[in-house]
Amino acid sequence: MTVFDQLKGLLDKGKKAAAEHKDQIDSTIDKVGDTVDKQTKGKYSDKVGKAKDAAKKAINE
User: Fold this and answer.
1) Per the confidence metrics, is the pTM higher than 0.85?
2) CB–CB of 37/48 below 8 Å?
3) How far apart are CA 23 and CA 61, in angstroms?
4) At what angle do helices 22-39 and 45-60 cross, to 10 degrees?
5) Ramachandran class of 41: left when φ > 0, alpha when ψ lies in -120 to 50, beta otherwise
6) What is the separation of C-alpha 1 from the centre of its chain, rounded to a whole number of angstroms?
7) Helices (H) and strands (E) in the chain, counts
């Protein structure tokens, strides 16, 4: 087994784990985004929202 095969297997395991815990991950993304938004007093809320959407999209792929 080559290093590439090992990395591919690890990536597949990560995708499977993310799919199994999608709800928990989405909830955590929301909590982190809300915390950042609160700490910055909404100054970067548009960027935080975009980052949250991008993170959720990456998990769903």
Assistant:
1) no
2) yes
3) 14
4) 170
5) left
6) 30
7) 3, 0
Q: What is the C-alpha to C-alpha distance for residues 59 and 53, in angstroms, rounded to an integer?
A: 10
CA distance 31 to 8: 30
pLDDT in tens, 3-51: 888 898 998 898 888 888 899 999 999 999 999 999 999 999 999 999 9
Dist CA 56 CA 5 (whole Å): 27
Residue of 8, 22, 9, 4 lying closest to 61 (CA atoms): 22
In the numeric block, the tokens 């297997």 are attached to 9
Tokens of 13: 């395991």
Please report where in the chains the tokens 């949250």 appear, as a residue: 52
